[in-house]
Design brief:
The structure is a homodimer of 345-residue chains. The first copy, chain A, has 345 residues and is α/β, with parallel strands linked by helices. Chain A contains 14 helices and twelve strands. A six-stranded parallel β-sheet of chain A has the order 2-1-3-4-5-11, sandwiched between helices. In chain A, strands 7-6-8-9-10-12 form a six-stranded mixed β-sheet, sandwiched between helices. In chain A, helix 1 packs across helix 3 and helix 9 packs parallel to helix 10. Chain A is elongated. The mean pLDDT of chain A is 90. At the A-B interface, helix 4, helix 5, helix 6, strand 2 and helix 7 of A face helix 4, helix 5, helix 6, strand 2 and helix 7 of B. The structure holds a DNA duplex (16 and 16 nucleotides).
DNA sequence: GTGAAAGCGCTAACAG
DNA sequence: CTGTTAGCGCTTTCAC
């Protein structure tokens, strides 16, 4: 289990190098304003003792932690099954690493976890938080608000209380959905169905709104609730087929549910895109390119969203240190989407 | 971006409740030894001020952090693409949550990250570490060793220096591989090939050894290196087919590579299992059950491995607090595997 | 039972 | 340039 050697302190290094604690501290933190020979002596002492600064002590006085929490309001099962999170995390991770900040991943599955996460955030472990995958009525926004931790949200938060002024990064879900459906219309399809995402998330609602923008008076039977998973897509597709056997196109709220829909269509002997055209959302390569046929979908740059969230947060944090009010608070960003045509529509 | 209200301190709560800091501290930490009326007064003050203890200050004196680092030596891309990690993390997360400990996920992609992770671990942010997916020559074991952080490894570490005494949880990779190959032999197969995992990981080496245990003098051409990914499985299968067109069975080092192999076999018109029998390793349900045909594979309980790792670590940590030497250091565990028969062999 | 006081290991003025 | 001196916010003896 590895030993726990008592770690040397600044004091010890100072003694060994024959200087004061202050000098050691200076050297450890960049070493400007210390003459070369001393720097060298201190460096050696640090090396010999294997000294590493105690972060708790450091944070206590600096109030900085060089760590950012990423809070995902989903069970691990989903977080790790859905490439969406992987991509977003990759973007975030890249940006944080470049800023020498540590990513701390917090998964919250239920009410009990919320308390723990709240304590963690309020406990001053991190400089800021990146929060995703919010569900309507989610206590998280209020919680980070109360914890007093600077936060950037991934996706527009639903309207809780602390949310009005929230900073977020989102895709143009509604616009992207419109484009997808218009494309289907342009293909001559008339009986266009929609498999929604989890409707307790704004992204799903926005995509549904986009669908309705174009299909103003669509048969209500053509809209079926999914949940962003392949299994949900299968279920929805089956229901759709039962209810409206004459449909000739499907717009699924994301690629994962589109893949499920595709499986059902094939099993039912409907040809794609000849009998039924299918469009997804996300352009998650490992999914969209592997389906049979490859999926026409609305592309959003997920990794870039992650990167942007991190960048906005870090910028905001740095600003606190600098002149107050310089540049003002960052404001939310909505990224554009583009339709990617493949074989399914 | 949310405001940063200055958080109230113990002092403030004490003042408000009209007691000393010591008393507030006692109440906050369980409240034994404080008379009821005072407890009540303090509780109310805490509530009203929204007080949350500052962890940095607390850790500084207690040397506890109620947090455990999970270090995965893989890029996010793989971590999130491979359900293996999801399952293991789920097990860990469950156990840590039950112990009210926070999971801190650290991904290390390259040398630069190692330094950062080393600093993080040595910096005293966590009480212990769970480290996985070690590669041969990986500096991580030595690093945690030097950081002086109690650690449990997932999978037997390769033999670095600090590794001899390392505590780990592993599956019986060699035994499982033997069982898989024997099964194939029992089916009457004679030209049995092996697609290895990433051979810089002990699990892959052990499975290869298991294969060789049974196929003592197999044609060396029947062993091709994979890397635990579906793409690697495809590549290996293609090479195998070119090199030994007469093979009649394949044992793949994990389900993911088996799925790749299956795809190639189908594309090449080989029937599974009639022409070529295939066995995988892991029994990762979302993979093994979805392949066509469903995969016969060696099951290991990955979630349980995670849970066990966490439990062993926590137990070790608790022990430090209690009587020293009680029960001695925990020792490594090797979990058994079982063959799961489906349609592919 | 409760409070006073002494640090945990570090940084940040402030002198010199 | 370097050292001395105060704390950061908390827990924990030790008296009362």
């Amino acid at each position: 289990m590895t030993e726990t050697a008592p770690r040397p302190t600044l004091e010890a290094v100072a003694a060994r190098a024959g200087v004061s604690r202050a000098t050691v501290s200076r050297v450890v933190n960049g070493g400007d304003g210390v003459r070369e020979p001393l720097v060298e002596r201190v460096r050696r002492a640090v090396e010999e003792l294997g000294y590493v600064p105690n972060q708790a002590a450091r944070s206590l006085v600096t109030k900085r932690h060089d760590a950012v929490a990423v809070v995902i309001a989903e069970p691990e099962t989903r977080v790790f099954a859905d490439p969406f999170f992987a991509l977003q995390l990759r973007g975030i991770s890249r940006e944080l690493t470049a800023h020498d900040s540590q990513l701390v991943l917090l998964l919250t599955e239920g009410r009990a976890d919320h308390a723990r996460v709240g304590r963690y955030l309020a406990g001053g472990h991190v400089d800021g938080a990146l929060v995703f995958s919010l569900h309507l009525e989610d206590p998280l926004p209020e919680l980070v608000q109360r914890a007093g931790v600077p936060t950037v949200f991934g996706g527009r938060p639903g309207w809780g209380d602390g949310t009005r002024s929230a900073v977020y990064v989102d895709s143009d879900n509604r616009g992207g959905a419109r484009e997808a459906v218009r494309h289907l219309v342009g293909l001559g399809r008339r009986r266009i169905a929609h498999i929604t995402g989890a409707l307790d998330q704004t992204s799903a609602v926005d995509r549904l709104d986009g669908f309705r923008d174009v299909m103003v008076d669509a048969d209500p039977g053509l809209v079926v609730a999914g949940d962003f998973t392949p299994a949900g897509g299968e279920r929805a597709m089956r229901e759709l087929l039962g209810r409206c056997p004459d449909l000739d196109a499907v717009f699924a709220a994301n690629d994962l549910s589109a893949s499920g829909a595709l499986r059902v269509l094939r099993a039912e002997g409907r040809r794609v895109p000849d009998d039924v055209a299918v469009v997804g959302f996300d352009d998650m390569l490992p999914v969209a390119e592997q389906t049979d046929p490859p999926l026409t979908t609305v592309r959003q740059d997920i990794e870039e969203m992650g990167r942007l969230m991190a960048r906005m947060l870090l910028r905001g944090l740095d600003r606190r240190g600098g002149e107050p009010g310089a540049g003002g608070a960052p404001s939310s960003v909505v990224l554009p989407t583009t339709l990617v045509r493949r074989a399914s529509a």
